Amino acid sequence: MASGKINVSVENIFPLIKKFLYSDHEIFLRELVSNATDATLKLKHLTTIGETDVAYGNPVIEVKIDKEGKKLHIIDQGLGMSAEEVEKYINQIAFSGAEEFLEKYKDSAKDSGVIGHFGLGFYSAFMVASKVEIITKSYKDEPAAHWTCDGSPEFTLVPSDKTDRGSEVILHIAEDSLEFLEESRIKELLTKYNKFMPIPIKFGTKQETLPKPEDAPEDYKTEYVEVDNIINNPTPAWTKLPVDLTDEDYKKFYHELYPMQFEEPLFTIHLNVDYPFNLTGILYFPKITADLQMQKDKIQLYQNQVYVTDNVEGIVPEFLGMLKGVIDSPDIPLNVSRSYLQADGNVKKISNYITRKVADKLKSLINENREDFEKKWNDIKIVLEYGMLSEPKFYEKSADFVLYPTTDNKYYTLAELKEALAPNQTDKDGKLVVLYASSKEAQHSYIEIAKDKGYQVILLDSPIISHLVQKLESDNENLTFARVDADFIDKLIQKDEETSSKLSDEEKEKLKTVLETIVPKEKYSVQLENLDSKAAPFMITQPEFMRRMKEMSASGGGGGMFGMGNFPDMYNLVVNTNSEIATTILATENEEAKTTLVKQALDLAKLSQGLLKGEELTAFVKRSFESIK
């Protein structure tokens, strides 16, 4: 029998591990199963390169609960250890067997998937256990060993009668951690952290139905067989090559990742790179809902198929945080407990790679099936528009696949849009004016006026559109965006020709005075315009600059620096001097009748903009009914 002290630099190392090293006690199971996986993968590698002639077989890792004995067992059929190796790897805290293994076999083992075996991860067991045992036998023909420690620096190491290869870690669960003796809790943790580990993990057994024999009698009773309950998928889709997967495989894996997600993903992007870093993964574009915050933290980060976190900030560009899927990389730097990311140059490289890969995939999708891409545009546009604003490298590539749909359901790239609009919508100063609407319903009358002029109106209804058009204008010379209700149409796209007014200058001045007496000055600026006699008599517009700055301020953009978010809404009341109503207002002598006429016309204009509400709407309805008595 051997005894001694674990080689640590402080006496109270275990309380420190329990309290500070690991942010969440439940990850002890992840660490121990990872160690068991390592031991198995190492053996597989050694047999593959001919370093040993032992039979690898079909090993599994078994997790067992002994509720009565208050013990939890983690059993593997991997390398195992000799007594000498136990002394080396277990009794010297933070000495990683994985590091030594990879150094020794660095040329042949770089793709072996080894994670880290019996380093600090093993000691996470003491977060939940009052005593830990290791019963282990090396794959080499050496005696088995039995190590025991009660959480103090004292340990015992004695021979064991274990005859089969591998290690069994036995945790004597502490009184404050009895939840880890519950089957449901252990199943939950295995599913969360070890769902895609590369070695099958057995947790109990389950019944499977035997196939019914062809010659079964009429009174045949269904027969069952007891089989191992393997709770993980050792070969998830992201570990395979894209050429080996079908669309159906990708969809099946999507539902394996998100069992409660019933909608199909829109697009799939398979990541696979081995230089200058290793990274694999699958990203899915889901349908994006209005609540963008609820959509975040759906991408799962793995390291060699070990689940780490669903907070991938820094690795995945922020605009792609609304996607779903998996990223797996051994090169992502984690803190010692594998609980969170550390700052590192590789992280930025990985983020840039993902950005480029997504952009390239989107370009190929629109080139391969434009019609299908257009159908899905509304479900993905907010992600791409956000990417254009937040990621310069993505913005550079976006012209190839970002679409600008019209209110008549035509879809243009920016280059196509410029070409289509140039003949009709270039103003007298040579500037191309892109008319857009934020709502087909709310701005319907303005859209129809523009279409009557032969103009096309694009539909830009995302909450960040004011920021985006500002950027597009700054990067494209002689291009400007104007919301279709920002002014009357002839002023939005000014041509050389001007319409004359049938009112004299004196009559126009008189009309303006009348209107400004009745129309609230604090909200409306009266403008007289010489429009076609068939055009709307009264029209309410909101100046593009003011509205855009207010929207940018409200969404946290550059407009905030001017404090415009708190400004009250201001509108222009555009009055057509060639309309019959303008003439009637001038001709009406009765002040009450004149006031009623102006209010009715103003309310009709407000109604078309969705601005007539509350008491004003009630008064308008009452006045309208009275006029048709």
Automatic annotation (TrEMBL):
- Answer whether the UniProt record assigns the keyword ATP-binding to this protein: yes
Alphabetically ordered keywords of this record: ATP-binding, Chaperone, Nucleotide-binding
Looking up Gene3D superfamilies in the UniProt record yields:
3.30.230.80, 3.40.50.11260, Heat shock protein 90, C-terminal domain, Histidine kinase-like ATPase, C-terminal domain
Asked if the record carries the keyword Nucleotide-binding, the reply is yes
Query: One short Pfam family name for this protein?
Result: HSP90
The record's annotation in NCBIfam families points to: PRK05218.1
The family annotation for this protein states: Belongs to the heat shock protein 90 family.
Q: What is this protein called?
A: Molecular chaperone HtpG
